[in-house]
Amino acid sequence: MRPIRTFTVVPTLPERLQALRALAYNLQWTWDHDALALFRRDDDLWERSGHNPVRLLGMVDQGQLEAMAHDEGFLAHLNRVAQRFDAYLTNGSSWFDRAAGAGERPLVAYFSAEFGLAECLSIFAGGLGILAGDHLKSASDLGVPLVGVGLLYQQGYFQQYLDGAGWQHERYDDNDFYTLPITLERRPDGTPLTVAVAFPGRQVVAQVWRAQVGRVPLYLLDTNLPANAPGDRDITDQLYGGDSEMRLQQEILLGIGGYRALEALGLQPSVYHMNEGHAAFVGLERVRRLAQTHGLSFAEAREVASAELVFTTHTPVPAGHDRFSPEQMDRYFGEYAAGLGLERQDFLALGREYPADDQAPFVMTVLALRLAAYRNGVSELHGAVTRQMWQGLWPGLPVDEVPIGHVTNGVHFGTWVSTEMDELYERYLGPRWRVEPADPTIWQRVERIPAEELWRVHERRREQLVAYARRRLRAQLERRGAHWAEIEAADEVLNPAALTLGFSRRFATYKRATLILRDPDRLARIFNQPGRPVQILFAGKAHPRDDAGKELIRQIVALGREEPFRRRLVFLEDYDVAMARWLVQGCDVWLNLPHRPEEASGTSGMKAVLNGALHLSTLDGWWDEAWRAAEHQPAPIGWAVGQGERYESLEEQDHVEADIVYDLLERDVVPTYYDRGPDGLPRRWIARMKASIRALCPTFNTHRMVQQYTERYYLPAARRSAILTAGEMARARALAAWRARVHDGWPAVRVELLDAEPRVELPVGGEVRASARVQLGGLSPDDVAVELCLGRVDPHGELVDVETTTMQPVDGEGDGYQRYEVSIAACHKSGLHGFSIRVLPAHPDLATPFQPGLIAWAPSE
User: What DSSP string runs through 773-831?
Assistant: First the structure.
């Protein structure tokens, strides 16, 4: 039976409790420990609500609500939280206000396929989503004018459970949107706000919901509407579910539908940030709308859109980038491309690595790289890997100059710090540690924390983690129908005082969850030394179609049942944000063992470091730069597995690096942990905890990260957009015309070396002189920059460590030739050096001289 009318039932709150509703519907409670404590006053109810304060309020008996309205202790707690919440929302002086120019408040739209904000809002799968959620939280704290755009999944990501053999299975539970901390956006007449997107032969309609993240709204699109066909209602059913066709539909909805949702809301962003290639279609829609509303050609509209687009890639593995067949793109974008004024081949070329290949797929990352003026990876190493991966999009350009930078990821400290560590930092670092975590002077005060207090706080968190793990293990064994003896034994697993290792993340094979299990006999000896016990907690999900990842989980579970590991190794199923907090707040050592360089950044270790854990990792992602940056600390900050070596095969790498892990545990980690003085304190270990916190916390937080995005990308992009769009888009039109003229004339551009002093030897710091003539092919000297590229010559005959110097035009020689000269003092180190000369397009409105993809080099000898 279907209803003929629907309505939403909401709890009736007494007048004195009305503030609870505002608190529940703003996800700021996820990083306010006092607000969390308010909702957790009935801990059993909090657990049954799924850590969802909106649902919790609906579960409370009306009589209990009336009693709470007369409970002076509860009211005092509520008023304290509500006053601080109101002060947070109305704070008129933020970091952004100080960093931006007077009156400068460009709106940034942040598009992502997933957002990890709270465990009750299942619209994320892993690190990408958690990073996006933390980005929004820090933007709110810093006052950055930003809105998020994503999809509201009916089922979200799956719930994990293991069978008796330890094999992962998936269960999908429907989200009840009307009991989540989200609000349906409505038009002035009260009807839901909707947008439509053209799909082959039909229109797909989506309604818009809002999740409020502090001061930042997150708008989420939902297609589960009666107006849509059954298949289209499922587009927003599961995150990363379905086949390639479903993925394409979701990404069209995210990029094009998300853009239209912002228009329908009356929002006009100045900057569009595409978090991973899933969101790249927003760039196309921005071009289309600019052309439509301002009468621009595709080329002119692209110049404006490019200035406004920021693209962040998180994937260093080629297979991780979405690719769609030409046939799929024809079906979904045939009419759309025509509306842009593009021929089929020109449209497909936007997303092809090799545009001339008619069978090449359309790659979302390529589309984003081609459209955006600002591009970055998510760690220093990942930036270098990304430049190498996509160098072919800038033919002839040295890999180090490929215009892809990096902004290293971070974590939102308020979300991930334990209550006990929060209070400890408050006491010894002062309150500024929460609002200015990127200030290194604050973290120098870690030395003030007495060793006894730091260790006791950490011990309490480990004890709580062990108690939590026992409860979770018992519950999962009961669900699995395990034998009663195995269930009873769950109450005795792990040791609250033992050295505890943690490994929790997606179970992708490159993350090597089982590397530490490679030699079980040796590991058993390490774990079971008399008086020096060691234990490990595993958690994580494999993708539903990743049988190799599921096999890793099965192996871990099987080993945990063997006698040497029965009380020392535990796998906790159904990893989520709540479990992640328990683990990062209670472990002693955080393990991260990916194949280098396949981990773009990683953030779980940053959360553990914040809570006093020490990191043990291969030199990949964020740990590569963290390890090098902290090499002069007075005490080690953790442990590095190897020095970033390359191996002939993955098998050899696994063999060597597993041995390194065992050696580190045997010779350093375990002895240092159990080296206790007369007072029972592991003082060398505590010194490392302090060194790690002091060195790493100022850098690896999302406040620093969002500040860098704002200073390097958001504000420059908004300023460039303002310049290009001023005066009826005059400079955008001029830039497009210039680019077309330069592109047409470029085939004739060539460089001829005229003379350079033929020195066989040159003293260090000696002067290099060179002159060349350049055939400009109808272009003017103002259209180009001619540069001398000087550097060392490596064993392969290539220039490295290159420094560029602009050569100056001196005389025109007729017939399109222009002479250039330079004289510089260079070569500050001895060895074989060399130089080359190149020509690049030059225009004051280009974001980078490499953007057009044009370059002419002098012929080599």
Answer: EEE-TT--GGGEEEEEEEEEE-TTS-EEEEEEEEPEEEEEEETTEEEEEEEEE---S-S
The 10s digit of each residue's pLDDT in 701-728 is 999 999 999 999 999 999 999 999 999 9
pTM of the full structure: 0.95
Contact yes or no for 207/152 (Cβ under 8 A): no
Please count the other Cβ atoms lying within 10 Å of the Cβ belonging to residue 289. 16
> 541 φ, ψ to 5°?
-115, 140
Contact residues for 499 (Cβ-Cβ < 8 A; gap 6+): 532, 533, 534, 535, 588, 589, 669, 670, 673, 674
Amino acid identity at 725: T
**115-140 CB burial, b ≥16 within 10 A, e <16:** bbbbbbbbbbbbbbbbbbbbbbbbbb
In this structure, are residues 662 and 526 in contact, taking their beta carbons and an 8 Å threshold? yes
DSSP 563-587: GGGTTTEEEESS--HHHHHHHHHH-
701 beta partners? 411
Residue 757 has pLDDT above 70, yes or no: no
Q: Which domains does the chain have, with CATH numbers?
A: 15-90 (no CATH), 95-406 (3.40.50.2000), 417-700 (3.40.50.2000), 749-857 (2.60.40)
Pairing of strands 784-793, 799-806: antiparallel
Task: Give φ, ψ of 680 to 5 degrees.
Answer: 80, 5
Instruction: Copy the structure tokens of residue 296.
Output: 């621009």
Q: What is the pLDDT of residue 10?
A: 62
* Residue 812 pLDDT: 77
What residues contact 696, with CB distance under 8 A and at least 6 apart? Answer: 606, 609, 626, 630, 637
Average pLDDT (673-701) is 96
- What residue type is assigned to position 29 of the chain? W
- Band of the pLDDT at 758, cuts 50, 70, 90? low
- Picking from 628, 714, 705, 625, the residue whose alpha carbon sits closest to that of residue 409 is 705
